[in-house]
Amino acid sequence: MEEPESRVEQAGAGVPDNFRRLWTPHRMAYIKGENKPTGSDAGDGCPFCVIPGMSDEDGLIVARGSVVYAVLNLYPYNSGHLMVCPYRHVADYAALDERETVELASFTQQALTALRKVSGAQGFNVGMNLGMVAGAGIAAHLHQHVVPRWGGDTNFMPVVGQTRVLPELLRETRALLAEAWPSSE
Q: Where are the domains of the chain?
């Protein structure tokens, strides 16, 4: 008599199962809030304050300006999803100074140009979630999302499978966008 399969084998949990399940264990860090700031001050573990001190490759920085920078989102909605962040730790858009406001707008335009060139994006979602109640994952440091969109990019995977399929590794996307980033001169 054959021994019964283990519960793990029966469920196909973590073993190859002909694509009946798509496992995304790397997302657990996001779900658990790992590396999320512990407070509202710059020294409280804010990733947007730490990232500029990293190399472009390690920080996934696409471009650096004098008062803002563009960085890929670690948990993207679509391939190429990036954010434009001021270097200064500031939560409210109304608190940006004129230089920050102008460069944030300019970097957003440059992001659109680079994403169209690299990925042929047909549209974009551009915006900010200001405050936790508005959906900001990191409310203490303002960041503007630039999400490229294509016709039919919302398919059954995010709707039914509750996961996203990204065709390219973040480091590869960063390199392509950095190369295509328009000069601000």
A: 7-14+23-180
